[in-house]
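Dear Dr. H.,

I hope your travels went smoothly. While you were away I took the liberty of generating a structure for the chain from your last submission, since the lab meeting agenda had it listed for discussion. I wanted you to have the full record in hand beforehand rather than looking at slides cold. The sequence, exactly as received, is reproduced here:
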Amino acid sequence: MDSGQSRAAQRRAKKKAKRSAPPPPPIATADDVSREKKRKKKKRKEDTTLPPSPSPSRLDDSAATASSESGNGSESHDEWEPPYESFEEPPLHPLEYFHPRNAQHDIAYPSMSRNAMRWLLFPLSPEKFFSSDFEKHPVLITSRKDSPPKVIDSAVVNFVTSEDRTASFINQAAGKKAEKKADLPSADADYFSSIISKEEVFSFLARYSLKYGEEINVTNVVDGKRRTLDILPKKDGEAVVAELNDVKANYESGCSIRLLCPQKYSTSTYRLLSTLEKSMDCMVGANLYLTPRGSQGFAPHYDDVDVFVMQIEGGKRWRVYPPRCKEETLPRASSSDFDVNDVGTPVLDVVLKAGDLLYLPRGWVHQAVTTPDEKHSLHLTVSAMYGWSWADFMEVLMPEALKSAAMASSTSLREGLPRNFMGYMGIVNNNDDAIAAIEKDGAPAFNDYEYELKRDRDAFKELAKKKIARIANSAMNLIDAASDELALKFLSERLPPAFTPFECVGKGDSNDIDDDDDNNDDDVSGGRAEEDIPDLNTGDTNIYLSSRIRLVRDGIARLIVEDDKAVLYHCADNSKTFRENPLSPLEFELDDAPAIEAILTTLSPQWIEVQHLPHPPAEDGDDKIAIAKVLFDEGILMVNNSHLGLKGVNAMDGGM
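The corresponding predicted structure, in token form, is as follows:
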């Protein structure tokens, strides 16, 4: 590779080459001869159960320091210093919890992921939100003061406000009409200003090729109907790039601009969403809306995702309506646009000002319009829970359960259907209601045909119930397998982790998730300026048995068993564009699984020495080093050898 290229360009070329390469061999990729020698052919085990994993010996940061001081009888080294200043919770002020534009977080990632949700919901606690409000009713936060939340009729809407604003909210469930245009002064207008700005939106349009329908929409509502002004794709199906002047002209004439993937261009948005994914434990996405004065971009509708509306600039009037029926409560698909006359009376009619937050569960109908007294409105809608319900879990579980039950030793599900069952089953033969009415009233009496029909139908239902029970029993044995499949779906769809500088120190593949967007030559979405990224590919990059290692971040990798192999999946190479890059699994022998599992469960502030990885036979140090090397090369493992007296956390003390 040309040494004159920038490190960012080299990383992009490296990742593209990796993805264009043929599928990896059964053993995780490695170039050196020692790894090939280490991967001697092993006897394939018939039992696919993971070998028992002895409890590995782990050191936390303080214990690691003490261990390095003792030296285990070897010559003394410089005192080992943990990579984090402190693991204590930050101060109570919400801006200290999480700041999406600040890349230099000085707290461990587990705390940062918890604090991102606290920052978003402050002063409402995440515990209270998830136990009382989540998926149940809207939440409106208009005050960032450190005061107890005020709940008004929690069966419908949870209003988190300061005490003197309580009277401004009247909801329909209390038998009163929603107050119109409740104009509430924001307690902290700059609360979300660190995420993105109006100027940045037009900057993205000028700098990058945003395509209509894929990355940007231009819309407005005329006479209650949504009108989309996107330029249609070309004849060959290629989307048209939005020109800045065209978009600006439409905006100035009253159209709303929606960015469909703002995290691709906005580092702070990307960092926020990536962190919230860990807090929510599900895929998180976002749309950004810029709307001029007095305009409305979308007609009333409901979504198939839970949304957090973060008002960044200006003000927007929101009208919110409850689900129209039980079937539209927590729906699995979004609605089409409604006529304003079909949605009833809003339970919430309020103007969101900069710094305010509105949470809406899926199924709650809503519409929004920029107020006439504001120059514009800019808000970010963060979405969660897409395809993440029990129904989605059952769609994975039940087909496999049926397949497993049908292939079982019992022939119950493989037996033929009863003869002539079509003669008494089906809608036209359903006389259950008529028979129930006859039994209730006592007359008239059944005739022979009705008795026979009821008898045959009851027998068929009883037989079907037993068959269904077999499938249900099979499903209970496959719950873990279905959970793994849903977890892999999450890994494949989630954003790449936005690594902090601390996580990058000691991590292989020395980038804090570089995007593969060719338009992104200056690494705008990579998280930090190139000169701020530690160069971890210089110096001694070997791994010894005495090296201390840990997973870079919890939840970024998952180990499963497939065809007598231990297969490791991770999301470090994911794209910021939904489902753009497929997962590239790493395949290991089954007896490597306990060592990999030990690594996946060793998280900050703990470390584990390579020699303590559980791996049969215990003295097989080459295998342990090889496993650590593969994970380091993938960029998901941190290595620390500073206790050996070598310079830098990333320095490694020989070996492989």
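Two observations you may find useful: Residues 448-476 form the longest helix (29 residues). The chain has three domains: 14-83+505-644, 158-385, 391-484.

With kind regards,
E. W.
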